[in-house]
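Question:
When you can, review this sequence-structure pair and walk me through the tokens.
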Amino acid sequence: MADLIWIAIALGVAVVAWRFKRHRDRRRQLMLLCHRASLEFSTVDPFPDTGWLPFRLFGRGLSRGTENVVWNDDEGEGARAFDYWIEERRTDGSVPVVHRFSCALVALPVACRRLEVAPHGIVDDVRELIEGDDLDLELGSFNRRFDVHADDRRFAVTFLDQRMMRALMTLPEGVTVLVNEDRMLLVAPVLSAPEVLLLLEAARALRRHVPAVVASLYPPRPMKGPHEDRWLQGGWSPEPIGDDADPARSIPPLRSRGERAPG
């Protein structure tokens, strides 16, 4: 019995050592590929907004983290790729399990509604869990490969035109695409170093395929300004915000009868 225990311990140590070596070798290869491709690389996340991205994935788990970040924002796309992990408690109370993903993120010049394009049978680890039935679109081959959920059908149909659907069909198997606010996120199982760079390029390519009409129907939300237009409940609201939202400031003063308006 004691021999079996020692054998089990030795096997456990060997597995941990093998995983550490594989992780280290993959990181070195990714660093070398980034150098050759003139991309920036960091083992830790230099972007403070990752934990606040508008996707369910970044709010899950007991703990979570980002590592092996790749980026080059020369074109102003806000594009980057990274490894992401989540530690979650098992339902039976045993040792927590760690889920790992490869992700690519890109900024969009529009104010998007929640949209999910996931391969059939994908697990709930990356799903946004948007309520509603699957949306059937015009491209049959696309419907056979992906499940589409959205909180605004009009946005989904506008965003997923024929050109965008065909671009999504070129993605590797197992990649889920999530859209919300002004971000598009690609999520996949942990990829090899060369595949991480391909995922980053895929995110950039999808950004270029966003239909131009989307920007006119769902224009980007201004970050500042007293009259910031917001898209709420399917309609535009030009109501002022901040200090100008005070009715006492927004209502013009009463004038006496016969008094002319200024100007």
